[in-house]
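Anyone up for a design puzzle?
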């Protein structure tokens, strides 16, 4: 059985000796958000927060999100879906106001 995102996040944070408070501050989220992610109450962070978490933990974003069991196709599918959602959000900000 593969490790869950929540367990992977906690393990990586603890291995690096980073506190919840320090990780939250460096990523730009609340301590509560990190705790919810580590408890599995929030399944996955946003694309941007996921990238920031991976950067702070010095791991590949795909590894953080999916673990080592993910195939390249799974990784690309998830990346494509997240990128499409991000593009939609950006489009909504740039849409002309009526």
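Challenge accepted. My sequence:
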């Amino acid at each position: 059985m593969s490790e869950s995102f929540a367990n992977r996040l906690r393990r990586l944070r603890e291995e690096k000796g980073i506190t919840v408070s320090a990780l939250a501050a460096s990523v730009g989220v609340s301590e509560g958000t990190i705790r919810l992610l580590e408890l599995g109450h929030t399944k996955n962070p946003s694309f941007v927060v996921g990238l920031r978490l991976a950067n702070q933990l010095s791991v590949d974003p795909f590894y953080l999100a999916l673990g080592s069991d993910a195939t390249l196709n799974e990784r690309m599918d998830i990346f494509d879906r997240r990128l499409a959602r991000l593009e939609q959000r950006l489009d909504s900000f740039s849409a002309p106001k009526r």
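A detail worth pointing out: The two ends are 52 Å apart (CA to CA).
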